[in-house]
Amino acid sequence: MQCRIMIPNRDQAPIERCQKCSVRHKAVCGALNDAELARLNQIARTRQIKPGQTVFSDQEQPEFFANIVSGVIKLTKTLSDGRQQIVGLLFAPDFLGRAYGGESPYLAEAATDVELCCFPSDNFEHMLGDFPDLEHRLFENTLDELDSAREWMLLLGRKTAQEKVASFLLMIAHRAPNIGCAHSDEMNFVQFALPLSRADIADYLGLTIETVSRHFTKLKSDGVINIINNREIAVPDIDMLANRADLEDAL
Question: Which CATH class for the 14-146 domain?
Answer without folding.
Answer: mainly beta
